[in-house]
Amino acid sequence: MKNQYDRKMKNVCEFIHQNLDQCLTVKRLSQVAHFSEYHFHRQFSAYFGVSVAKYITQTRLKRASYELCFLKEKSITDIAMDAKYEFSESFSRAFKKEYGISPMAFRMNPDWLSWNQKMKKTTIPTVSVMNVNITDFKETKVAVLEHLGPAEKVNESVMKFVQWRKSTGLSPISQSRTFGLIYHDPAIVEPNEFRFDICGEVLKPIPNNEFSVVNKTIPQGRVAVLRHTGSHDLMDEKVHYLYGKWLPESGEETGDFPCFFHYHNFFPEVAEHELITDIFLPLSGRT
């Protein structure tokens, strides 16, 4: 019964993410969940710890934050309208109330550490079966921007790497794969010691550059692969499943290379629920 309840709540969240540009009424959402409209408010708040109206607002403002930083060609007025604010002034007030900074100031100088500290993350139930496959990963040359510091500031490094990609054309986003190498669990390492490599596939070594992007190689070898669909904020559960359940039960041993991710698409170019990320766990027996 609980799985069925979880599924209904997950369906509501997915519907919200799929229809952020639409008018989302309690009546419509209660129909999606197959709950009574009279009780849906309390059921949603009790389950997620936030009202449905607040959840919708937070989700729209989160998308707006990414659009401000990663879609520079999009005007603040258009971003405000997409977030369902008729006037830019209303959007600015709501954004500043949520994050303590105006949309214009955030676009000019985004402080992702402060943003993440203010960001309310809601856990969405996971009821899907976790299918793990073992395959061979081919050696891949990558250009890498090394992030060292709080995990909450990774987006600042991502923005720098995107700038390098666009300015050089050496690892075009549309034609080359994007990876992330995670060296530490951010939950247990000191913030200033957290390491994460942001990688773009390249065909040949890149020259020295002002962005401090360097050459590295993801080696050939056996890997366990688990696909994650949805927000990157919710990937921890799958990573923990690989290490805590699948690995002990599989009889496999880890290889001498960190866990890494293959990002198939990017937010806010696609909605968060449409994000596809493959999680790779290197295994022993590399060739």
Task: Tell me about this structure.
Keywords: Transcription, Transcription regulation. This is AraC family transcriptional regulator. Residues 10-109 form the HTH araC/xylS-type domain. InterPro entries: AraC_E-bd (IPR010499), GyrI-like (IPR029442), Homeodomain-like_sf (IPR009057), HTH_AraC (IPR018060), Reg_factor_effector_dom_sf (IPR011256), SmbC-like (IPR050908). GO terms for molecular function: DNA-binding transcription factor activity; sequence-specific DNA binding. The structure is a single chain. This protein is an alpha+beta fold and 287 residues long. It has 2 domains: 2-118, Orthogonal Bundle (Arc Repressor Mutant, subunit A); 132-282, Multidrug-efflux Transporter 1 Regulator Bmrr, Chain A. The chain is 41% helix and 18% strand. It contains 10 helices and 8 strands. The protein has helices at 2-18, 26-33, 37-48, 52-70, 76-82, 88-99, 103-108, 112-118, 154-168, 236-250, and strands at 132-137, 140-148, 178-182, 195-201, 214-218, 221-229, 259-263, 276-282. An 8-stranded antiparallel sheet has the order 1-6-8-7-3-4-2-5. It is globular. The termini are far apart. 26% of the residues are buried. The model has no long low-confidence stretch (mean pLDDT 91).
Order of helices and strands: HHHHHHHHEEHEEEEHEE
Q: Over all CA atoms, what is the radius of gyration? A: 20 Å
Strand content: 15-25%
Would you state the CATH class of the largest domain?
Alpha Beta
Tally of alpha and pi helices? 10
CATH topology of the largest domain: Multidrug-efflux Transporter 1 Regulator Bmrr, Chain A
Secondary-structure class = alpha+beta
CATH architecture of the largest domain: Alpha-Beta Barrel
Name the CATH superfamily assignment of the largest domain: Regulatory factor, effector binding domain
- The total of beta strands comes to 8
Terminal CA distance reads 47 Å
Outline, from the CA principal axes? globular
Biggest sheet features: 8 strands, antiparallel
How are the strands of the largest sheet arranged? 1-6-8-7-3-4-2-5
Number of domains: 2
Q: Specify the helix fraction band.
A: 40-55%
Average pLDDT confidence is 91
Return residue spans where pLDDT drops below 50 for at least 5 consecutive residues. Answer: none
